Amino acid sequence: MKAEGRITDVPGIGKKSAAELSSLGIRTLRDMVLFPPRSYDDRREERNLSDTTPDNPSIACRITVISHSQFPSKRSGMTLKATCMDDDGRRLELLCFNRPFMKDMLKLGSSWYITASAVERNRNGIYSTASFELKRTKEEAGIGRILPVYPLTGSITEKMLRNASAYAIDALSPFADELPYDLYGKLSLMHHDDAYRCIHYPGNDEDIKEARRTLAFTELMLMELSILRGKGTTRKSPGKESAAERKLISSLPFRLTADQLAAASEIRADLDSGQPMNRLLQGDVGSGKTLVAWIAALHEIQKGNQVAFMAPTELLARQHAEGAAELLASSGIRIAFLTGNVKGQGRRLLLESLKDGTTDLVVGTHALFSEDVAFKRLKLVIIDEQHRFGVQQREALRNKGIDASILSMTATPIPRTLALTLFADLDVSTLHTMPSGRIPIKTYLVSDRNRESMYKSIAVEFQRGHQAYFVYPRIDDEGESDLRDVTHMHDELEAKYPGIPSALIHSKLPEEEKIRILHDFREKKIMYLVATSVVEVGIDIPDATCMVIEHADIFGLAALHQLRGRVGRSILPSYCFLVFSQNLSVEAKARLSVMKETTDGFRIAEKDLEIRGPGEMAGDKQSGFLRLRFASLTSDLDLIENARIEAERIARDDPGLLSIGNAPLRIALKEQN
Ligand code: ADP
Ligand code: MG
């Protein structure tokens, strides 16, 4: 696009409007061209008074002034009422509050083209409006055209923005193409000169669609290119598994799934590539990510390096440390466990062993990135349930190594559109398939009033020797809200299930107490837990078959999915009860029906994106990335995939964008920064 003109170049836009426009991101004429309408006002057809309906009370037609009258208005001044007639002979009263001077303009017998978005009709069939625009000609009134409708702010009006966009298009056109020539034909895109004109002033609906598609594709393409060029696209050869890894894999009582094998091999290739890895391992709850992580750890440790494994809670860290000891100790690996509760002499010795390299693998909580923790040669950082950690926490741990690789694991899958754009700087391995033999969890939505039958079916599960979780949002409500809490419900459930041993568990209990309770639950000395969402992550009890979540409507989709994932972890059939109260919000209804509909974490993530929008979902990712003007991360998967494919091809064949064909991209990227 041509050199910048300032927005104040537009006649009628002064300093005050310019300040308001800058809050919409419009400072230059180019910004104005890139400012997409939020919708359109279709004035292709003339609309007379008789065309108005309650749904569409707008008009765009010719009128003639037939009489005037004036009356005092409530505030100071006089109101002018000008009675007009459209070409069908219907009457319209124009109300000009405090503008009696309009009388001079609205001469009797004069004709005007009027546009008004809301015309009212009284009982006598007379139409009136106080908000309208009058023009001398059809063209000036925009009749016969589709006009843009922009989002507004402050005292900025539609009219000002329409003026500004028309002016900017005039001043900056013709617009040069921004993509390599061959892509236009290949993907049936509009040339950019047409696209920029049509996005503001389309001739028909098809124009709007095609212009948006072209501009969205361009925007995505530039985004992908800038990410890919930063990342580099070297091809890696598949990594080789060592004898120790082979031994570990063959010692397992089950076979790895094909996805687990593929992920392990992708990770090995990264670890051996000489460049730090930044890979996300995503896979649904129970898909077996941990094992892949241990294989990666073993691979790195055999090269003489150290590995740190970080989990979000002490319970989970402990479970992982025990798992690691069972699997890896026989390979001669020295394992340590570090949390905030490891103190005194024990802690001092442990820290020394990390510093002098006698510990190969340390498993722990965020205590791993305390200041006093130093490593000899930390090369791989594994982060379980990575969405539980902030960016700073992850970085702090990574910075304890030199060029350390990161393997992040998550059971909250990233929808494909986000993975391809916002997370394009990450490599992603995915475990799609579950270990064999699992039965899908049955999910029931239970209205508050129907809870008795739910309690009965859980009693049947207890008789079969199966276990249950009851989850509530609060520890102790003390009358603050009318939510059920664990403390009160524990009493109620004990009365309901006399003689069945149970325990209360929540974040305020001391760590040793929680560990003891979970141990007893695993040993079946406890048959059900009454819990807050502390049981959300990681806990693995095969005989627990029932999950009750009360006030399910106030939990987010990711949390519901995680909680449900605590059951269905063996070959037993299992059940999830989502209890909700009346008066659900639209969003809460949507969330619950998604949970009922599917147990597939990927589907749930897609739905979450639709319901919450990308800003919320991407969490701590730079929000600047999200300022897509034309493309949508919820609905443009096809475009995003195409943009990725083309960007990868170009970044590979011509990373410097030096060829003549790629020059427009080079220029556009430069302009962006
Ligand atoms: P997540 O991906 O949720 O972290 P885990 O790694 O905790 O899942 O694995 C869940 C359970 O499945 C564990 O008990 C683990 O030993 C088991 N598991 C892992 N891989 C397989 C497999 N290929 N076949 C059968 N069971 C497996
Ligand atoms: Mg896990």
Summarize, please.
This protein has 673 residues and is α/β, with parallel strands linked by helices.
Radius of gyration: 33 Å
What is the overall silhouette? Answer: globular
Bound molecules: adenosine-5'-diphosphate, magnesium ion
Structural class: alpha/beta
- This entry's quaternary arrangement is single chain
Question: CATH superfamily membership of the domain at 243-431, which one?
Answer: P-loop containing nucleotide triphosphate hydrolases
Strand order of the largest sheet: 6-7-4-3-2-5-8
**CATH architecture descriptor text of the domain at 243-431:** 3-Layer(aba) Sandwich
Low-confidence stretches: none
CATH class of the domain at 243-431: Alpha Beta
Describe this structure in words.
The protein has 673 residues and is α/β, with parallel strands linked by helices. Among the domains are: 45-144, Beta Barrel (OB fold (Dihydrolipoamide Acetyltransferase, E2P)), CATH 2.40.50; 243-431, Rossmann fold (3-Layer(aba) Sandwich); 442-598, P-loop containing nucleotide triphosphate hydrolases (Rossmann fold), CATH 3.40.50. 37% of the residues lie in helices and 18% in strands. The protein contains 23 helices and 22 strands. The chain has a 7-stranded mixed beta sheet, with no helix packed on it. Strands 12-13-11-14-15-10-16 form a 7-stranded parallel beta sheet, with helices on both faces. Strands 17-22-21-18-20-19 form a 6-stranded parallel beta sheet, sandwiched between helices. Helix 13 links the parallel strand 14 and strand 15 (405-410). Helix 19 (586-597) packs antiparallel against helix 20. The longest helix has 27 residues, at 205-231. The mean pLDDT is 88. Adenosine-5'-diphosphate binds at residues 254, 256-257, 260, 283, 285-291, 411, 435, 540.
